[in-house]
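Example: Coproporphyrin III ferrochelatase.
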Amino acid sequence: MQKSENASPVIGASAAAAAGGEHVEVPVHYDAILLAGFGGPEGQDDVIPFLRNVTRGRGIPEERLEEVATHYRHFGGVSPINDHNRQLKAALEEELGRRGIDLPVLWGNRNWAPYLGEALDEAAERGFTSLIAIATSAYSSYSSCRQYREDLWGALDASGTHGAITIDKVRQFFDHPGFVTPFIEGVDEAVAAFEQEFGAEGIDSAVEVLFATHSIPTADAERSGPRERDFGHGGAYAAQHNAVAEVVMLAVEQRRAERSASRAEAVAAPIPWQLVYQSRSGAPSTPWLEPDINDAIAELPAAGRRGVVVVPLGFVSDHMEVMWDLDNEARETATDNGLSMIRVATPGTQRAFVSGLVDLVLERRDGTPAAERPALTALGPWFDVCRPACCENARLGFRPALAGIAP
Ligand SMILES: CC1=C(CCC(=O)O)c2cc3nc(cc4[nH]c(cc5[nH]c(cc1n2)c(C)c5CCC(=O)O)c(CCC(=O)O)c4C)C(CCC(=O)O)=C3C
Ligand SMILES: [Fe+2]
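Written out as structure tokens, the predicted fold is:
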């Protein structure tokens, strides 16, 4: 077993194997999978302590916390996210069983019970020393990647299992077919439904597709991904979302073309789409990625749109950001602007997604060569081992993190 304090600057179970490499192309033994979730409150009394956990040291204004608390209160103080992870854990176990793979699944969260530390206690009790983590987050940025890696490191520290337990993490899976396929199917169904509502002809001017993701501070976005590479405005975070949205629309256009061919119609112009942001928090004076989804929706009628497809491209399940900010707020904005809105499903526990997550674990277990790993955009397959300073928080700076090369 590799220890974290060994000579290699790479931190994780596959330390020596990965030194210097972006992909670990040798087999690694794992005792269990660690599903690392965000966590959410499960009752009114949990709401404020949960929000304090999420925002500790982040400079989020008190008014914003009170506002977000009302979203949770509206649903009895319960976020659905823990249930989603319970269901995902069960679905992973089922898929592993179906494939005859003997890998138990442990589950822990960053921000609420069961915490990551509890999962590590369970690992220690069961004698597991080598874990492969799956974070329920697909893209690169401080909030969507590095913070999970830092909190995993912190959980090892706090539970006193540093050195006794090592943790690798599967790559960011934004362009893995298991994650992208549910969005392709969802957008295709939504476009087909609008073809019914508005007629297939002219739908390219009547309908727009908005790919929605969590806004993050612009300074964090610029630092997302490896420091040596320039991904343009919004960093790797925006580049990855744009690349995935392009792949989704290409597939959708292909299916549209097949439908019009079967009706012996000419293929119309492509349906317009854009990447938009939601759930901005932080101080108003701090720049965050834009445009906001509600502003984007309000512009649509002037462009002749009558329908909008909202795709929660940045999210793995229908948690509070989807339920409130999309199904409540964005829908209201659409209605106020006379638009018909269809919100596409998240990957959740859809078969393609669950099966894709198992594939991501197996490519690490087996040390599959990078060239053979599935990736639908030119940006991937993403790193197994993050570069030094990858996705560092613009304000907090360096904090130790797992599954990366130490600076
Ligand atoms: C990129 C990103 C994802 C996607 C990647 C991933 O999925 O991990 C994500 C997911 C989530 N965010 C969530 C909840 C919250 N996020 C907050 C605050 C923030 N999110 C940020 C970014 C992201 N967040 C940022 C930059 C902040 C500012 C504070 C900071 O710098 O950290 C706050 C504080 C109040 C507020 O300011 O809104 C809450 C309550 C939940 C749980 C929902 C539920 O309970 O169902 C989930 C899945
Ligand atoms: Fe968040």
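The pocket of coproporphyrin III (ligand 1) is lined by residues 38, 40, 51, 54-55, 58, 60, 64, 68, 79, 81, 137, 141, 143-144, 214, 216, 279, 281-282, 314, 319-321 (CB under 6 Å).
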